[in-house]
Design brief:
The complex is a heterodimer of chains A (about 425) and B (about 1000).
Chain A lengths: L1 H16 L15 E9 L5 E10 L2 E6 L8 E4 L4 E4 L1 E6 L36 H4 L6 E6 L6 E9 L5 H4 E11 L4 E3 L10 E3 L3 H20 L7 H11 L3 E6 L2 H13 L5 E5 L7 H6 L4 E4 L14 H11 L4 E4 L11 H9 L5 H6 L3 H7 L16 E4 L11 E6 L2 E2 L5 H12 L3
Parallel strand pairs in A: 1-4, 1-5, 6-7, 9-12, 12-13, 13-14, 14-15
Antiparallel strand pairs in A: 1-2, 2-3, 5-16, 7-8, 8-9, 10-11, 16-17, 17-18
Helix pairs in contact in A: 4-5
Chain B lengths: L1 H12 L21 E12 L2 E11 L2 E6 L8 E5 L4 E4 L1 E6 L46 H9 L2 E6 L6 E9 L6 H4 E11 L14 H19 L8 H9 L4 E4 L3 H14 L4 E3 L8 H7 L2 E5 L5 E2 L4 H4 L4 H9 L3 H7 L4 E4 L9 H10 L4 H8 L1 H6 L17 E4 L10 E5 L17 E7 L2 E10 L2 E8 L2 E3 L1 E6 L2 E7 L6 E7 L7 E7 L4 E11 L4 H9 L25 E9 L6 E10 L2 E6 L8 E4 L4 E4 L1 E6 L28 H8 L2 E6 L7 E4 L1 E4 L6 H4 L7 E5 L19 H23 L8 H10 L4 E6 L2 H13 L6 E4 L7 H7 L2 E4 L17 H8 L3 E3 L10 H10 L5 H6 L3 H6 L17 E4 L10 E6 L2 E5 H27 L4 E2 L16
Parallel strand pairs in B: 1-4, 1-5, 6-7, 9-10, 10-11, 11-12, 12-14, 13-43, 26-29, 26-30, 31-32, 35-36, 36-37, 37-38, 38-39
Antiparallel strand pairs in B: 1-2, 2-3, 5-15, 7-8, 8-9, 15-16, 17-18, 17-25, 18-19, 19-20, 21-22, 22-23, 23-24, 24-25, 26-27, 27-28, 30-40, 32-34, 33-35, 40-41, 41-42
The chains are: A alpha/beta (about 425), B alpha/beta (about 1000).
Chain lengths: ~425, ~1000
């Protein structure tokens, strides 16, 4: 009885979570908008001072300045900054609301090889966590299933939508694979010694991946007598229509992953994590592997590592000539609003600000395969962008005044700003 | 009673006699009072007294005399030991010999932890079992006894190795003859303790090291009260403690830090623990020395790591590599520092490794006399058995070793181990030493033959000219059997012979591969001598030992930093005071204090630091940290006020160094949030390199952690049996505890006799305004509740930490006078943080609450400057006010603002020099200074990185060499580093 009651309570609570609806999605762009006077950070390394940015029907039609014909509704942004909307890859945003409330958790399905699991159909467009991204400039995400060896298939969404269909930017863009670790923590709950030791099952686990890949390849070569949704989901990897996001940190693991996946006919591979990628830059270059590196706000993995290794890691990779974006798949979803500051941290390590910006905009869009539509403030691309009072990579000055997704001017209010205003009102401030 | 009974038997009848009043049916009862005289031996009467050509005379299991000119009675069996040595047998002072270790109680699949004791009529905690007596479980273990005798031991001190209070042990001679009536020397040889829970009970408490310490303290307080007859009920555990009073107390601590922890308890109750250490004492030798305790020290020096695979080797930390390199110096360092210690086989995987480990310690500098003391006289002294054991002096047990030479030499053979006058043969001592160079003739050929190696297990080499004939040899009794064959195996000869009494030339039968039998003769040309060159080589390549650092891990300091005079010139100074932000300003640091703030200050001997374009701030203070601690939660009870984080500060946590690199100089290490009433805090300065006691503030303000909400009601894990399960229950728990504390305090102050209760003492401090609460809190209802409870008991809550809905009750908080220490932007991780908003700090601050930004996280802690900056974004706080939230405001909340938290003349020089605006995401700490000493410096950090790289390379080279030399290695491993948060149960 008690348990039943608890389940009911939990259920009611989790419904309650959704009771405060998020901000109403903005309507389609109806008039030409022209933003003037701002410093435009294009997202490809360029900056235009005192710029003019024009967009209509959701697309950028002019980016330049200072002198340009002004059209449509003018937004004066003198002294302000314009950025392309930031993109957060590898996150389960919209798949889990409150970490500790199991009823709100849809991020990790049972099973080790489940590429057919699709995040998009569980994506909660009305998540309060999702809406809290926007006031910091994070306007797109790759909503990604978690766990297992092959976790499932992600999709790319924009963060101002009525429902998951409405949110779609790119459906089923990639499959996510957690590479085994050659050195792992003793599973003390199974009676193993505590501490980290070489993983004796590593080769066996690689064999499992190999077998799965070759089975999927074989499946694709015939019209199979029975449907296998898992193998079917894999086919895009062999044609190149889907990317494989492989999560690996160690030098050995990365080499093994790229080698084995290439041999397994996977066309488009993206390395996610890459803690030691800086040690094998020529190898990654040779194989043309982009890296979605772990967020900078991390502790070093080992006690003898440089205290600032996570801070400078993206710089090491960029300096080596790799295509790099930043993800924070290892952090709680709510942290994703700090994406701009992860990039800012690299500037403290000596990276140019505009280069750092690419790590969360232009580069990321290119890595995710949406670079033709999003990621930079270039003519012809989606008007997914925002205006900030100051430098958006620094927490002091990341203060948004306007944000647009596909030209739609979205609300910058959230459950949190509403509470802020309500209580400031209570105290008469 | 029993004890006396046994001793009586022993003294009256002696060992070789049957017990007087026992009937005997398998023969006739006769006495043997003969003497045995060992003559012409080198006697090691004591570790420092050697007698050459001496005589040892024993009778009835005891030494009668030892030395020169001993007159040998007529009824003596004389054993000529010419050239051999006699040592007193070793004493194992710490073991579980003959006492089976209890089995772990299987989990019963309970969803909730077990909070109550399983037993009735005993102490309230199952892990306290002083009523156990090892004698009742003892079963003489012949197999292990032999292993131990083979390693040189004659007696062993043993007990039940389980639990925190383990009861009494016994001292047993490793004498296979007779029976327990002879061999048990003491059936209550001492009482035993540790910090480890019993495997026989699943009772949760204590769930942490600090809990185990608190439990031991409380047990002693309760004992004192019980012993005075105050209890109305019977407690068989405490009764046993009373009965065991006066016995020697052994404490298994297991590492350097725990040694000092055990010693703290020992000092508090005058227990004079003999401490069983961990072998890492050399890393904190000053602290170990200061304990003034006597030690039992293991020699389980770790094997080298197998670093042949660089992908695996990288996981091994420098600290672990160093341990391999440095640990064998431990006995030497202890001896050099005048610490009295015995060596033990405890913790060794194989007792048979003991000799090689001790030899390793000697190779690493331990003096041989000290080694011998640590195996004989000192353990005898620790056991209170100096009159009976440890030397060859008259009246002591005839426990001695007969060896071929110096007992600590590799080639030395241990022949016999006599225990209580009973001979135990290990190697036949009468076997001749046949090592030497021979000319072998047989089958019509002549060979050069060499027999070498250990006398009792010699090896053979057969050659003709330069051609080698691989040979095998076995030597048993006085028979030798060997075979040798040509490389192509065409010619194989097998031979056997009896060794003549003089042990020189010998001859016998030779059988060729074709079965033809003939005779052979081996005539000795010369005695075998170990290759001089090889010997020299060995001495020449003395093990290279890398120096220790403070702390002895990566990024440790070669020397402990000390206060310097420094003048920061032309800095932008963030005072965190009314003075605000001062441009182009100088700050002079002297004697650990901020001496002067101004312009164009005079350096007068101080190091000038050009701070043009840089920012100087007070060091960051983290009000809520869980780094640098070995345990965080004592979750075994719903109140754990008796535990203290100060007991478990870990000064070697690299997160201290990383925090310094983020500009943090002081932190409060808070207990976790498992219980409504948590434990006491440790407030420390991040003096990387000092021992734990050197980190804790002098006259530290007293704090305790309280907690509200989901964690204390255990909402997010399967636990349904502990009160409280609701916020309603949390209130009643507080009320109840404070009621009790009040009654306790009243009774105490009235002068009546009372049971000292550490938990109540701490709670009474809160009521008396001597201890402050920092309370983990989320939702407004409970925040309000705790303020009301405090007001009812006439005190004020000092700080609400986390306080994520503080903005909803900021006016009430202001009125109550409580401060707030919050996250900048965390939320959504559990239900109760649904309404957590990043504007919280700004709102509370605008209402007039003193607000700090904290981390509760080892990563965020090193970027608190950025976290403070988020309040500029969320809520529009001024930069100057935001900066105070990580400096002077937390100092105020911690009652440290008179000492630190701002740049003000006279205050502690806890400073950070930043290369940029300190609240910018782009800023880096260049120097972090604590009490005027530089603990982090960007340039020094570079040098440390280089040093780590070089030292790792060097140690890996040494380890590879050790592997190539055939030594055992172990696979690479990395310790499990736990980054604690509030909710970590450990």
């Amino acid at each position: 009885m008690r348990i039943l009651k608890n389940i009911l309570v939990t259920a009611v609570l989790s419904i309650g979570l959704h009771a405060w609806a998020q901000q109403t999605p903005a309507p389609a762009q109806s008039e030409i908008i022209c933003i003037t006077g701002a410093t435009a950070h294009i997202g490809n390394g360029q900056v235009i001072e005192n710029s003019v940015l024009v967009f209509e029907n959701g697309k950028i039609t002019f980016m330049g300045g200072p002198s340009a014909p002004l059209r449509g509704k003018i937004i004066e942004a003198n002294g302000k900054h314009i950025y392309p909307g930031f993109i957060a890859p590898g996150k389960s945003l919209g798949l889990i609301e409150v970490n500790a409330v199991r009823a709100s958790d849809d991020e990790d399905e049972i099973g080790d090889f489940i590429p057919n699991i699709r995040s998009i159909i569980a994506y909660n467009a009305e998540s309060k966590v999702v809406e809290s991204m926007r006031p910091n400039g994070v306007l797109l995400t790759q909503t990604t299933p978690q766990g297992g060896r092959i976790s499932g298939t992600s999709s790319i969404v924009q963060l101002d939508a009525w429902n998951w269909e409405d949110a779609l930017v790119k459906e089923d863009d990639g499959i996510h694979m957690n590479w085994p670790r050659s050195f792992r923590r003793g599973r003390w709950w199974l009676g193993e010694e505590r501490g980290w030791k070489p993983n004796k099952d590593y080769q066996k686990q690689l064999g499992e991946i190999k077998d799965y890949l070759s089975s999927a390849v074989a499946y694709g070569k015939t019209s199979a007598s029975s449907e296998n949704e898992g193998f079917k989901a894999m086919q895009g990897l062999f044609s190149g229509s889907k990317k494989l996001y492989v999560y690996a940190d160690g030098e050995k693991e990365i080499i093994d992953a790229i080698t084995l996946l290439k041999e397994g006919n996977v066309k488009e591979i993206v390395l996610v994590g890459g803690y030691e990628a800086y040690k094998i830059i020529p190898f990654l270059k040779q194989h043309n592997i982009p890296v979605l590196v772990q967020q900078t706000h991390n502790l070093p993995n080992r006690e003898d590592d440089d205290y600032d290794l996570p801070y400078k890691l993206p710089k090491l990779l960029v300096d080596g000539g790799l295509l790099v974006g930043i993800q924070n798949s290892g952090a709680s979803n709510f942290q994703t609003r700090n994406l701009p500051f992860y990039a800012g941290q690299v500037v403290g390590q000596g990276m140019e600000k505009e280069t750092a910006l690419k790590l969360i905009s232009g580069n990321t869009a290119e890595i995710l395969g949406i670079g033709d539509r999003y990621g930079t403030l270039e003519v012809g691309k989606s008007a997914t962008l925002f205006v900030s009072e100051g430098d958006a990579l620094d927490m002091r000055t990341n203060v948004l005044t306007h944000a647009f997704i596909d030209g739609r001017m979205i609300s910058l209010e959230t459950h949190q700003t509403e509470l802020w205003k309500r209580y400031m009102g209570k105290y008469g401030k | 009673m029993k004890k006396n009974f046994f001793l009586l038997c022993l003294f009256v009848v002696g060992l070789s006699n049957a017990q007087d009043y026992f009937p005997k049916n398998d023969g006739v009862k006769e006495d043997n009072n003969n003497y045995t005289a060992f003559t012409n031996a080198t006697l090691h009467v004591t570790p420092s007294k050697e007698v050459k050509k001496g005589t040892l005379l024993v009778q009835n299991g005891k030494v009668v005399s030892a030395g020169k000119g001993v007159s040998i009675p007529a009824n003596a069996v004389v054993v000529d030991l010419d050239g051999k040595h006699i040592y007193p047998s070793f004493i194992e002072s710490y073991s579980g010999f003959g006492v089976e270790k209890p089995k772990r109680k299987p989990s019963q699949g309970r969803r909730s932890p077990q909070y109550e004791a399983s037993r009735e009529g005993f102490y309230w905690n199952d892990h306290i079992m002083p009523e156990n007596h090892a004698i009742s479980k003892f079963k003489y273990d012949k197999k292990t006894a032999k292993e131990m005798r083979d390693a040189g031991f004659g007696v062993a001190n043993t007990h039940i190795m389980d639990g925190i209070a383990r009861g009494t042990g016994l001292l047993v001679a490793l004498n296979d003859q007779g029976g327990d009536q002879y061999r048990i020397l003491e059936d209550q040889s001492g009482q035993f303790f540790s910090f480890s829970k019993s495997v026989t009970s699943r009772q949760s408490y204590p769930g942490s090291l600090m809990g185990a310490m608190a439990l031991l303290r409380q047990m002693h307080y309760d004992l004192d009260w019980y012993a005075k007859g105050n209890s109305k009920t019977k407690d068989r555990s405490l009764e046993a403690m009373i009965e065991n009073k006066g016995l020697i107390s052994y404490f298994e601590a297991g590492d350097k830090g725990n040694n000092m922890r055990a010693d703290k308890i020992s000092d508090l109750f005058n227990l004079n623990y003999v401490i069983v250490g961990g072998g890492d004492e050399y890393e904190a030798i000053e602290g170990i020395k200061a304990t003034n305790a006597r030690y039992i020290i293991p020699v389980n020096f770790p094997d080298a790591f197998d670093v042949s695979n660089p992908y695996m080797a990288k996981y091994v930390s420098l600290a672990d590599m160093r341990e391999w390199n440095q640990a064998p110096t431990n006995p030497k360092v202890l001896a050099d520092n005048g610490i009295r210690f015995a060596l033990t086989t405890h913790d060794l995987k194989k007792v048979s490794d003991f000799k090689s480990k001790v030899m390793k310690a000697i190779e690493y500098g331990l003096d041989k006399t000290k080694a011998l003391e640590a195996l004989t006289t000192i353990p005898a002294e620790l056991l209170g058995q100096s009159n009976n054991l440890g030397t060859l002096e008259a009246g002591k047990y005839a426990n001695f070793l007969i060896t071929s030479g110096d007992i600590f030499e590799k080639e030395t053979t241990l022949y016999e181990n006599w225990v209580q006058g009973q001979k135990h043969v290990i190697t036949d001592k009468d076997q001749k030493d046949i090592r030497g160079n021979y000319t072998l003739t047989g089958g019509g050929k002549t060979y050069n033959m060499t027999i070498k190696g250990e006398a009792s297990k010699p090896k053979m080499e057969v050659k003709v000219g330069e051609t080698n004939f691989p040979a095998k040899l076995t030597y048993k009794g006085n028979w030798v059997t060997f075979s040798f064959s040509s490389e192509d195996k065409k010619e194989t000869n097998t031979a056997t012979a009896v060794i003549p009494k003089d042990g020189k030339s010998f001859g016998g039968r030779l059988i060729a591969s074709n079965g033809v039998e003939s005779s052979f003769n081996a005539s000795k040309i010369s005695e075998w001598k170990e290759d001089d060159k090889k010997d020299k080589d060995k001495k020449g390549t003395k093990a290279e030992i890398v120096p220790i650092t403070y702390p002895n891990v990566g990024y440790g300091n070669v020397q402990k930093p000390t206060a310097q005079s420094m003048l920061f010139q032309n800095a932008t100074v963030w005072t965190s005071e009314d003075a605000g932000i001062l441009k182009n300003t100088d700050v002079l640091v002297k004697n650990g204090k901020i001496e002067k703030i101004g312009t164009n200050l005079n350096a007068s001997g101080a190091t000038k630091i050009d701070a043009t374009g840089k920012h100087l701030t007070a060091g960051i203070i983290d009000e809520h940290s869980h780094i640098a601690a070995l345990s965080i939660n004592e979750g075994g009870h719903n109140s754990s006020a008796e535990v203290s984080i100060e007991d478990v500060v870990d000064p070697e946590d690299v997160d201290i160094y990383r925090n310094l690199a983020g500009g943090v100089t002081s932190i409060q290490i808070l207990h976790g949030s498992a219980n409504p009433i948590g434990g006491r805090s440790a407030i420390i300065k991040l003096k990387w390199g000092e021992e734990a006691s050197g980190l804790i503030y002098n006259n530290t303000p007293k704090f305790i952690k309280f907690a509200l909400g989901e964690n204390v009601k255990q909402s997010n894990w399967e636990s349904r049996s502990r009160f409280p399960q609701t916020r309603m229950g949390v209130e009643q728990l507080y009320v109840n505890y404070f009621n009790r504390a009040k009654e306790y305090d009243t009774k105490k102050k009235s002068g009546q006799s009372y049971r000292y209760d550490e938990e109540m003492e701490v709670l009474a401090e809160i009521l008396n305004g001597e201890r402050y609460i920092s309370c983990h809190s989320y939702v407004q209802s409970e925040i309000n509740m705790l303020m009301k409870v405090a007001e009812r008991f006439n005190f004020r809550v000092n700080t609400f930490t986390h306080i994520l809905e503080g903005y909803k009750v900021a006016d009430k908080m202001k009125e109550h006078g409580v401060g707030a220490s919050t996250f900048s932007d965390w939320w959504a991780y559990k239900y109760e943080v649904n309404d957590a908003i990043p504007y919280n700090a700004a709102i509370m601050s605008s209402v007039g609450v003193t607000v700090a930004i904290n981390s509760d996280d080892a990563e965020m802690s090193r970027r608190l400057n950025q976290e403070a900056a988020k309040s500029v974004k969320y809520g529009g706080m001024s930069e100057e006010e935001a900066w105070k939230m990580v400096t002077i405001n937390p100092a105020k909340l911690l009652h440290l603002d008179a000492k630190t938290g701002s740049i003000k003349e006279g205050k502690d020089a806890d400073l950070v020099l930043w290369n940029d605006h300190p609240m910018s995401v782009y800023a880096k700490a260049e120097k972090t200074i604590v009490d005027g000493a530089v603990y982090f410096d960007l340039e020094a950090d570079k040098a440390k990185r280089e040093a780590i790289k070089n030292e790792r390379t060097k140690l890996m080279g040494l380890m590879r060499a050790e592997k190539d030399g055939g030594a055992k290695t172990r696979e690479p491993s990395k310790k499990d580093k736990i980054h604690f948060h509030c909710e970590t149960l450990n």
